[in-house]
Amino acid sequence: MISFSLSVIMLIIGYKLYSKVVERIFGIDPNRPTPAIALQDGVDFVPLPKWKIFLIQFLNIAGLGPIFGAVAGAMWGPSSFLWIVLGSIFAGGVHDYFSGMLSLRHGGESITETTGRFLGTGMKQFMRVFTVVLMVMLGAVFIMGPAKILDDLFQGAGGGITMWVWGIFLYYFLSTILPIDQLIGKLYPLFGVAMLFMAIGISFVMFQDGLHVPEITMDSLQNLHSDPGAFPMFPMLFVTVACGAISGFHASQSPLMARCMTNEKQGRGIFYGAMITEGIVALIWAAISMSFFGGVKELNEVMAQQNGNAAWVVSTISNSLLGKVGGVLALLGVVAAPITSGDTAFRSARLIIADFMKSNQKPIRNRFLISIPLFAAGYALTLVDFGIVWRYFAWTNQSLATVVLWVITAYLIQEGKWFWVSLVPAVFMTAVATSYILVAPEGFQLPTRIAYLVGVGVASLPLSLALYKAYSRPEKTSKVLVH
User: Fold this and answer.
1) Which of 268, 396, 401, 473 gets the most CB atoms within 10 Å of its CB?
2) How far apart are the C-alpha atoms of 443 and 52, rounded to whole Å?
3) pTM
4) Residue 210: which of 278, 134, 288, 150 has the closest Cα?
């Protein structure tokens, strides 16, 4: 378990060191009034303690990504360890911190409005539609995922999967319209205990039983997927793991917490810290998936037999390693993660539309008027095959992360700050998102050589524009170089 253990240590070191660099580049002002104080409304702008905000942020962004995504990502082998570590530190952490802090600095505004602020009105209009569609799509995904796990856990008791779908829908609706401190603020600590038990319990058993986790070697860094031709490591791995390394969904959630923070000093722990914590969860599930069935080859065989059903893998591992009671608690942790992302996905969609319509969300009637159509669209998506929705969500999610990284880069260039911290991951993710849709089964299914060439070409365009903007203005150039 040397590679796994070192990966966890590197994530912790990354938080301790690199997050401070990112914070310094942003330049916090502890004396600046936050939206929770200046715009307090008792519904969305509500001051909360830091520990509770962190826990809500972590559960919001976790979802199925660092669990199901890590299980699927492990099919490529130990290379997934490297992406989780490097992605979390240099891409996901930067993405989450700046998206949250920019919202904090601008009245708790949604990422769509922040995009318009730095990339123009046209991009803002596009992002309004794009992000709301992503939120509804994610909400639908995070209904069916946990509903299938619960149905499997209770072996179809009661009304079967339909009963669980409607139960989750009811919870989502209440958490979307009620003040954030009433339902979300009270239940999330309990869900957090289940999530922590799951991660700590799995890790403890891994070490206690001495399970063999594949190490990172030159041989193991090759594409170990059972069908490497159809699933090239680049860009498939970088889209599949998603939330365990970087996720555009996080940028939609951070404004929710920006509206509850009482000091800018809290940002590093809440935004960057939650991303690193999610990376650790992803590492645990990638490691146990590669070891539990006997190796990467065996994991691929199991996933093929189960038609790619990661929920079955999670259920089997939890029940086998933690016993009946422990398995139930661990599975509840796995269920809590997507549910606590799905509810805030719909809540985020409500706030994005409210920002666009300039709708005061204090009256509950206004919350109902926006929420009901959103849930109608979400229900319609639950009728579509889960696998299809998930595949399109994965690409859409990483495309949103790419746009947000370019928003951050534009902000840093405009302020004359050290923009390379976001420029490098922005260029990389542009190549990833472009290449993926060109080679993926749900995309254009082009040969990789064409997809790679187009991906690099597309990524070079905003890179050239960013460098031109950064170094063509004499009054900013000195600041850029100094920082």
Assistant:
1) 401
2) 40
3) 0.90
4) 288
